[in-house]
Design brief:
The chain has 594 residues and is of the alpha+beta class. The strands form four sheets. It has an eight-stranded antiparallel β-sheet. The chain has a four-stranded mixed β-sheet with strand order 2-1-5-4. It binds adenosine monophosphate. Keywords: Ligase.
């Protein structure tokens, strides 16, 4: 990016954040006038485009409300008659699920253009803080493309990142600016892909100026992987031959072009990796690295301690907040700590509204936001971007050129300040997520259903599941789900004090059954080793009574007490863990949909 371009990017950021209200109103006007004749908007606005009428008549909706329209488009009906006039180039696959399948978000050439503008602004800001890293060297970004899903209409559904990786402009800059060859990003086997991307990052270590991945969980997973595989990687570098188990032809081709025997480099890496502590390893292996670029907020906050350990003081830059529904916010202070990050919402991407949330309904840590209709302030309707109040929590609604109108993204955010006239938000959490160890969202209902399926396997053994709860364990990477079970025989006394009578085969089947019953994204992440095997920890009888006693001492009402489906409190987890009598893991990856 030329100096002029980056300066114009910074100038544009200032202008956008100053004229936020006007830009938002103009954007809404454009969206409504373009799409007024669609079946969806006609039903509420009868061809009108007035903002007040929009707020009065168009309902606030979730994906489920729009799904029938989106399904019709995916099945071949013309999108221009139904939801949005602009032709679709495909769908984006969101990490949220609906009825067990990923959500499909319509995508147009215009939305791709908006994302490109957003990226330009983001890059300008990064140049301001770190200089132009494109001139300084390469990025070791760990990138994993996902297969597209073909809809009956012929339109493809792709992850937003995969669409970006396929773009011709990305392909053109990849060899010069990134360490990962194209083939490794598209290798369908994530283990082979990760191995090769780390290998190519190591052999180009002198050029690496930035390390990252979209989400922090992937960066941590990669360093764990390196910890477990550095000897083999060094041996490949020594001999110039890639390991036999890398069977993907694309990866092998890339290796044959780039991997040459390099004894000196292999010895150096071996020296660094065989040191006792891996604290600060990134700086030692990639000495020119300026920062780690990865989202560390929200569900990713749980990975930052581990990442900081590997980083040795390098800045962790959580640069932007984006979703399949639209690029949303940029972190204007990329050097601040992950826990202090706020995102400034850009007014030219989507039209926002904010539903205010009652303070006592928000538990202020990742993935713990359990909201229902009662959580919103009933007296106040949604407010516009520039009218949010400092310190207040809100649920985000978007109206966009992608056919989303007053759509609940499902994210809860808190106003922390303003840049010019535009608010800055801290990410608080996702609505209705009970468990999440990566970017998947598992609700209480998902856990309930999975447990119901699995516990039926205990029946023939004369055992019943009396109580259960769960935890997302991220003490190791990848994280995994832990389900605590209290089991008792249907008849007679407890003869299962030490868990010996539990048939390990059946218990493992229970673990697998739960995984098979969980949603699409969970099963996909498991297959890609982004989540490790689900674990059932069987606890002594009486454990859940002790758990209840604990919560009652903490103020829960005994008469209204209900075991939480998911436990976040460390003390409560200690109560459970100290009473575990047996542990079982799922022995296989869950069944995938065709
Ligand atoms: P997807 O639905 O797969 O597009 O994922 C988008 C979701 O990821 C958002 O709605 C957020 O819940 C989450 N997300 C994206 N960026 C961030 C961020 N910077 N911090 C926290 N959560 C994020």
């Amino acid at each position: 990016m030329a100096t002029n371009d980056y300066e114009s990017g910074l100038k544009m950021l200032e202008e956008l954040t100053t004229d936020a209200q006007q830009i938002q109103d103009q954007l809404l006007g454009e969206i409504l006038s373009k799409n007024a004749e669609t079946e969806y908007l006609q039903g509420f606005l009868h061809g009108q485009t007035d903002k007040q009428l929009f707020k009065k008549n168009v309902p606030i909706v979730t994906y489920e409300h729009l799904k029938p329209y989106i399904d019709r488009i995916a099945n071949g009906e013309a999108s221009s008659d139904l939801l949005l006039v602009e032709p679709l180039i495909g769908f984006s696959l969101s990490s949220g699920t609906s009825g067990g399948l990923p959500k499909l978000i319509p995508t147009t050439a215009e939305s791709a253009h908006i994302t490109a503008t957003f990226s330009k602004l983001y890059r300008s800001l990064m140049i301001k803080h770190f200089g132009d890293i494109n001139q300084a060297g390469k990025r070791m970004e760990l990138m994993f493309a996902k297969p597209d899903v073909e809809t009956p209409s012929g339109l493809k559904a792709s992850a937003v990142s995969t669409r970006a990786f396929k773009g011709s402009s990305f392909k053109a800059i990849l060899p010069k600016l990134y360490t990962s060859p194209f083939e490794t990003i598209f290798c369908p086997d994530t283990k082979q892909s990760m191995y090769c991307q780390i290998l190519f990052g190591l052999i180009q270590r002198d050029e690496v100026v930035m390390i990252g991945s979209i989400f922090a969980s992937t960066v941590v997973r990669s360093f764990k992987f390196l910890e477990n595989n550095w000897k083999e990687l060094c041996s490949n570098i020594k001999t110039g031959q890639i390991s036999e188990w890398i069977t993907d032809s694309g990866c092998r081709n890339a290796a044959s072009l780039m991997l040459k025997p390099n004894l000196e480099l292999a010895d150096l890496i071996e020296d660094v990796c065989s040191c006792k502590s891996w604290e600060g390893i990134i700086r030692k292996l990639w000495p020119k690295t300026k920062y780690i670029g990865t989202v560390c907020t929200g569900a990713m906050l749980q990975y930052t301690a581990e990442l900081e350990f590997y980083c040795g003081g390098l800045p962790l830059v959580s640069g932007f907040y984006a979703c399949s529904e639209g690029a949303v916010g940029i972190n204007l202070e990329p050097l601040c700590k992950p826990s202090d990050v706020s995102y400034t919402f850009l007014p030219n991407t989507v039209y926002y509204e904010f539903l205010s949330i009652k303070e006592d309904c928000v538990t202020d840590s990742q993935n713990q936001v359990q909201l229902n209709a009662m959580s919103h302030h009933e007296d106040t309707g949604p407010v516009d971007l520039v009218n949010v109040k400092l310190g207040q929590c809100y649920e985000v609604l978007v109206t966009s050129s992608m056919g989303l109108y007053r759509y609940r993204v499902g994210d809860i955010i808190k106003v922390t300040g303003f840049h010019n006239n535009t608010p800055q938000f801290q990410f608080v959490g996702r609505q209705n997520v009970a468990l999440g160890v990566d970017m998947e969202r598992t609700s209480e209902a998902d856990i309930l259903k999975a447990v119901a399926e699995a516990k039926a396997l205990l029946d023939p053994l004369g055992l019943i599941l009396t109580e259960y709860t769960s935890d997302g364990d991220t003490s190791s990477a990848p994280g995994h789900y832990v389900i605590f079970w209290e089991i008792k025989p249907k008849e007679g006394n407890n003869n299962n004090k030490n868990g010996k009578e539990l048939d390990p085969k059946v218990m493992e089947q229970c673990c697998s059954k739960m995984e098979d019953s969980l949603h699409f994204t969970y099963r996909m992440y498991r297959k890609e080793n982004m989540i490790a095997a689900l674990e059932i920890r069987v606890v002594k009888q009486g454990t859940f009574e002790s758990l209840m006693d604990y919560f009652v001492t903490k103020g829960a009402s005994l008469s209204q007490y209900k075991t939480p489906i998911c436990i976040k409190s460390k003390e409560a987890l200690n109560i459970l863990d100290s009473r575990v009598i047996a542990k079982f893991f799922s022995p296989r990856t869950p069944i995938q949909d065709n």
